[in-house]
What we know:
Bound molecules: zinc ion
Shape: globular
Number of helices: 23
Number of strands: 16
Distance between the termini: 47 Å
Largest sheet: 5 strands, antiparallel
Radius of gyration: 30 Å
Helix content: 40-55%
Amino acid sequence: xxxxxxxxxxxxxxxxxxxxxxxxxxxxxxxxxxxxxxxxxxxxxxxxxxxxxxxxxxxxxxxxxxxxxxxxxxxxxxxxxxxxxxxxxxxxxxxxxxxxxxxxxxxxxxxxxxxxxxxxxxxxxxxxxxxxxxxxxxxxxxxxxxxxxxxxxxxxxxxxxxxxxxxxxxxxxxxxxxxxxxxxxxxxxxxxxxxxxxxxxxxxxxxxxxxxxxxxxxxxxxxxxxxxxxxxxxxxxxxxxxxxxxxxxxxxxxxxxxxxxxxxxxxxxxxxxxxxxxxxxxxxxxxxxxxxxxxxxxxxxxxxxxxxxxxxxxxxxxxxxxxxxxxxxxxxxxxxxxxxxxxxxxxxxxxxxxxxxxxxxxxxxxxxxxxxxxxxxxxxxxxxxxxxxxxxxxxxxxxxxxxxxxxxxxxxxxxxxxxxxxxxxxxxxxxxxxxxxxxxxxxxxxxxxxxxxxxxxxxxxxxxxxxxxxxxxxxxxxxxxxxxxxxxxxxxxxxxxxxxxxxxxxxxxxxxxxxxxxxxxxxxxxxxxxxxxxxxxxxxxxxxxxxxxxxxxxxxxxxxxxxxxxxxxxxxxxxxxxxxxx
Length: 582
Ligand SMILES: [Zn+2]
């Protein structure tokens, strides 16, 4: 856990304009800055950044949030990573045990410099090697694509890197995996006579390399080892370059090789990324599903490809949601994406991707494989095999679909499958309890907006008039408490939002902030609106009480004291400005 006080300090030391400007060109427009929205496609800018509120908001698609939220949404980082990223920019140290024991910022920093230096060296070497250039040309790659992916060449020789690093004995070179120390302390370059693919993190830093052999040789691909900078299960090759295309098409294609990514990009398919020589992890799937609604895994059509796909399927089960699509594309056995797109063109590849097998279908295929469904044994085995997978599938509607498919294939009924697999019954979403007539929640919501805009008003909230039990009322209570604790900087929406992150109030507060950006109360009229809102709340309370007394009267009659109260209330209602009873 990162302490809240640190988040608030970090946001206090961070300017959202700087953060967003690192990724988007911002133009001044009055008090705010604008850009074309990175989260939906548009021609005229409706994405607005407010330096005063430390908040971004898109008037087109409604995306909004703090500087932390922007980094998460834009870079697909998790909360902790986004905070680490901003903290590094602000020169702050995140005061928590690492969420994972990897990146030791102090150990990683000098290594990042070495990797950047090495990437530069390999790039220069590529220019000097006609053999490597010919190889890339023969694969149909242009200079522009080679530059976009920062391709390089590690020359043949044992200590090529000593040209770039006069201190070839430096421990850092071993630590970042560029140099191998053999027996007797003899050192030599890990990558020799290979085309080099730098692997970047989401901030664009080189964290590792993939080296591909030129022509024949083993291994075909050689990767950097895991280092303090580089953890294979968390990174994806080509992601920084693919991000704009992923966003534009709202889909991402996952392939197995670096060359596949680059070849697809060469043919105009820019939304491909590759795993790093390991099976895809749930973490990577999670990252991809944050960036796009459709993820297509592309595998070779052979037995190994099928196996890899089955592993990918498992990594998806707990990540996929009902509004996301995961699909599996199998190429002809003799092809990989690189050879396929070169031979048959982008159109054919995209058509294959469009027709990729949806997750549920692939899962059913996998489950059916090797079972004889004509026999009772085969049908029972089917359900038995499905159970551990169904339990892990988190998307309720998708799971229901699968249960139906399984019922069809197995001859069990749907409730039988649910019982056999011990699945929680899909909860029918309760219709929201209808608010009683004239329910004051819109008024409470208005108070939320007023308090965010002018926290001092929190001290004057008429708590007795605020009907308990509503989400709005609870959020208002939490907001008032935050003001009282001094956690709420006036006008700084980013900090307000982060204060409520991961609380039950987050969604509501987030909505309220967006409403405020779209329709802010006039500075001068705040006082009047507040007074009017409180008055309306009072009237709503009066009306509510009249109604309940009337009802009791009809049911059981009223005692004299209640009678007097009713008359008093009716008089109050009479006296009120008619406008208040709308
Ligand atoms: Zn937008």
